[in-house]
């Protein structure tokens, strides 16, 4: 089967969330929290990500977007680092940090190569506007924005993978999920999608990242340019 | 209020559905139906559009996409024109005619101008893949694909306008619905969106099109380039 569409995990796979959040945290909290380990702050915030989405995935609450979940988990993170009296305006700016992330260096050019012959969409847990902001910031062009905004649920719920396949209208095996996380790829594969793993050795800063897939995948790539090479996209 | 995002009607407003469908009908049915008035065939097919969507809007049936509605209404149109024995393969190709429409001539360049400062998305009754196919065919770049695929309902149901505003996250009055149809703009305005009317004098071929808005609008434009001029987008 030929691959005809790529749907992408975004946080970690296309963009460097840890450095970007740490940069904004440093900028916005330096005065109040001198000596703050901004990378550790980003890690602590990200650690709330899965538990916060689980409240939606489980059906315990109606769908709310990731901006809302980030805003809800922020006070806990601030308290964990002993940072008090952060204004609502600064908290809102901190939530926007997740809209201001830089792509991994090879991504813009590699995505442009892939787009010459394939349809492309993010299939992320971030909402439409967050995806649009990341795309505009980094010069990424997608054909559509799929994912949590489109499916009103969070990966790895089946709707995210099934809706992504249906939206582009190819067979599941012609639609490839691209991610730096084996769990995402395992879920995609369970719905028949092809899968590509991207090794993001620095996703978690000093804590590293997945050096390769821990599950069977269709492609394993060092970065997005390597994937484009393997797919024959010049 | 400044306009920050534009959401577009597509059939008639950005693309010339009548000429495109007639061209494909002519190509696919000429052998079986010599002398067929392909424009009249396109009109007859389009006449089934609102009644077919109404079955979804009313709640009488679960959401199905416009490809499905086009496929369902096609046999009636063929019968109306006395065309028998059209294979399933040709019928499927005819449904694809709606994916192969040309943009009105000024649209690609005007859209590129608008995109320099505004976020853009179709807010059409067509599904994601249909929008993607039209965008790729005509070199249009959008930031997201909103509309029936995103909202699982059809204009003028409130969800289409509310979801479009929420997806980009600006105030309703910062989000502008752009359409060649006053009814669409009236519905958008009822949800607080700004509105722009585009005069498509040839939408219905010899039967013309709306020469101007029949409802109050924020902008009335001769075409999309005129709208870009009025918005100061160079």
UniProtKB/TrEMBL annotation, chains A, B:
Keyword Hydrolase: yes
Keyword annotations from UniProtKB, A to Z: Hydrolase
Entry's EC annotation: 3.8.1.2
Top-level EC class: hydrolase
Source domain of life: Bacteria
Catalytic activity entry: an (S)-2-haloacid + H2O = a (2R)-2-hydroxycarboxylate + a halide anion + H(+)
A Pfam family reported for this protein in Swiss-Prot or TrEMBL: Hydrolase
Keyword Nucleotidyltransferase: no
InterPro entries xrefs: 2-HAD, HAD-like_sf, HAD-SF_hydro_IA, HAD_sf, PGP-like_dom2, S-2-haloacid_dehalogenase
GO molecular function: (S)-2-haloacid dehalogenase activity
Family indicated by similarity: Belongs to the HAD-like hydrolase superfamily. S-2-haloalkanoic acid dehalogenase family.
Function: Catalyzes the hydrolytic dehalogenation of small (S)-2-haloalkanoic acids to yield the corresponding (R)-2-hydroxyalkanoic acids.
Alphabetized NCBIfam families for the sequence: HAD-SF-IA-v2, HAD_type_II
Protein name stated in the entry: (S)-2-haloacid dehalogenase
